[in-house]
């Protein structure tokens, strides 16, 4: 495909795309073209929440044992059903799923179920895990939320700083120069060649490291399998410190839970709920910021998805609160 003339202005973009815009445009195009039902998303598909949850658990260095809990939440909410996940543009009630955002929201809900994330309980459980690990160094270590937070916070800050610097230094240019007409083609290529040569000479003069070539693409942004002793890998750690046995089943020691959204909007607006950092705990803010950075989305968008998962998981809770609010109203004649 050759680009020149007016197409140069269309494809010569110098801005970063927004997740919401891409998502909405994709839905609009699929609906406008009357595309048939997309291929079914089963448990073997990469977009299934069970597989995506495993991916992001590995990404943020959380224990593998959490995967069984995320699968249980997916089963209880019905978010793993084929009809729920498969996109059908021509259906009357077409449902769209933000697959990665949904999977990350499920992980956040599981973290709240285990540690509550109220800036209190997670640190108390961390003290118990730290004492147990000191006494039983030969056994499988318990997951220490405080230690995970410290390691993850440092890695997250470094990764975010590098990303912001790379984004600021990014050169908005294509691999091949764009030109308006075939007459300008040799001039454009000559200018590009001169610029590349000058950059190489300048880097040699200032004794700077030359720009590295393109790295092979990877869906993971963090690497926890290296030989870095300061970055502990928590994948094999146990959740015994936050779970208790009751018969043949496991229950969380934490019996409390707070809903991210107490009341949803009744009006037909575009948002589900508003997110203000000052209203939430620091640990909850950190986890939202971490996952939002991985997905390159707004924190409020992830918070809304967490609220939707909770709405499906605690349907009885929301229905009870709704009935209570109705009973308090006085009928007027």
Describe the secondary-structure layout:
Layout: H1 7-11, H2 19-32, H3 49-59, H4 66-77, H5 82-85, H6 99-115, H7 121-135, H8 145-168, H9 185-205, E1 243-246, E2 249-252, H10 282-295, H11 299-313, H12 315-328
Antiparallel strand pairs: 1-2
Residues in helices, as a percent range: 40-55%
Distance between the termini: 71 Å
Described by the principal axes of the CA atoms, the overall outline is: globular
Give the beta-strand count. Answer: 2
Largest beta sheet, briefly? 2 strands, antiparallel
Oligomer: single chain
Q: What's the Cα radius of gyration?
A: 25 Å
Strand content: under 5%
Class per helix and strand makeup: mainly alpha
Main location: nucleus
Protein name: TATA box-binding protein-associated factor RNA polymerase I subunit B isoform X4
GO molecular function: RNA polymerase I core promoter sequence-specific DNA binding; zinc ion binding
Pfam family, one: Rrn7_cyclin_C
């Amino acid at each position: 495909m050759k680009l020149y003339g007016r197409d140069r202005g269309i494809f010569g973009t110098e801005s970063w795309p927004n997740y919401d815009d891409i998502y909405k445009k994709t839905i609009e195009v699929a609906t406008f073209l009357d595309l048939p039902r997309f291929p079914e998303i089963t448990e073997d598909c990469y977009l299934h929440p069970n597989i995506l949850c495993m991916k992001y658990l590995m990404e943020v260095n959380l224990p593998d044992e959490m995967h069984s809990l995320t699968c249980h939440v997916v089963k209880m909410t019905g978010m793993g059903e084929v009809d729920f996940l498969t996109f059908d543009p021509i259906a009357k009630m077409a449902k769209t799923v933000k697959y990665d955002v949904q999977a990350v929201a499920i992980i956040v809900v599981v973290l709240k179920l285990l540690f509550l994330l109220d800036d209190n309980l997670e640190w108390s459980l961390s003290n118990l895990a730290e004492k147990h690990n000191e006494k039983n160094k030969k056994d499988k270590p318990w997951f220490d939320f405080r230690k995970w937070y410290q390691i993850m916070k440092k890695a997250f800050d470094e990764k975010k700083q590098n990303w912001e610097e790379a984004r600021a230094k990014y050169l908005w240019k294509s691999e091949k120069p764009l030109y308006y007409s075939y007459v300008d083609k040799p001039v454009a290529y000559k200018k590009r060649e001169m610029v590349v040569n000058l950059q190489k000479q300048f880097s040699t003069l200032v004794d700077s490291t030359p720009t590295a070539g393109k790295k092979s693409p990877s869906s993971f942004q963090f690497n926890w399998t290296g030989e870095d002793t300061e970055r502990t890998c928590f994948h094999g750690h146990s959740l015994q410190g936050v779970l208790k046995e009751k018969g043949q089943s496991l229950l969380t020691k934490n019996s409390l839970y707070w809903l991210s959204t107490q009341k949803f909007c009744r009006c037909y607006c575009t948002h589900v709920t508003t997110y203000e950092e000052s209203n939430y705990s620091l640990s909850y803010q950190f986890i939202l910021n971490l996952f939002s950075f991985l997905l390159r989305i707004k924190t409020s968008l992830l918070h809304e998805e967490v609220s939707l998962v909770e709405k499906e998981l605690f349907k009885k809770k929301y229905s009870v609160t709704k009935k209570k609010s109705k009973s308090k109203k006085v009928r007027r004649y």
